[in-house]
Amino acid sequence: VQLVESGGGLVQAGESLRLSCAASGSILSINAMYWYRQAPGKQPELVATILAGGGTHYADSVKGRFTISRDNGMNTAYLQMSSLSPEDTAVYYCKMNIRTLGSTDDYWGQGTQVTVSS
C-alpha cells in the first residue's frame, strides 16, 4: 500500500489550498483517514479526521476554515484549506487505516509542504 500526497505549495495569507492523498495497492477497505501537520520545532498536530461513515472531527485551530472529505471509490482523502495564515505553515501528512488481505494497519503519506506568507 502506498499513499501519495499532492497539492501543497506557497500561498499568501487569506488564500486557499486543497491537499489530496491517494492510496493504492491491495486495498480491501479504508477506515478512518487523517490529516496531520508538523511545523518546524513543534510536535505533530492532528488536524482533521474523517471516519468511514463520513463523520468528521477538526482541531480547534482549523475549525471553520478546513474541510476534510473522502472519495471512497478513488481511495482518496482531501483537505480543503481556506483563510490560510502563516501559522498554518507546516508539512502536512495524511494517514489512513487500511484493511488489506493480511491485516489492518496505519499507512502514512510522504508529506507535502504548505507555506503561507504574510
Descriptive account of the structure:
- 0% of the residues lie in helices and 58% in strands.
- It is elongated, with a radius of gyration of 14 Å.
- The chain has strands at residues 2-6, 9-12, 17-24, 29-38, 45-50, 56-58, 66-71, 76-81, 90-99, 104-108, 112-117.
- It is mainly beta and 118 residues long.
Short overview:
By secondary structure, the protein is mainly β.
Describe the secondary-structure layout.
Elements (H helix, E strand, L loop, with lengths): L1 E5 L2 E4 L4 E8 L4 E10 L6 E6 L5 E3 L7 E6 L4 E6 L8 E10 L4 E5 L3 E6 L1
End-to-end Cα distance: 38 Å
Q: Could you say which structural class the secondary elements and strand pairing correspond to?
A: mainly beta
Radius of gyration, whole Å = 14 Å
Q: Residue-averaged pLDDT, rounded? A: 97
Q: Give the biggest sheet.
A: 7 strands, mixed
Helix content: under 10%
Helix-strand string:
EEEEEEEEEEE
Spatial shape: elongated
Total DSSP helices? 0
Number of strand segments = 11
Into which percentage range does the β-strand content fall? over 45%
**Unreliable sequence segments:** none
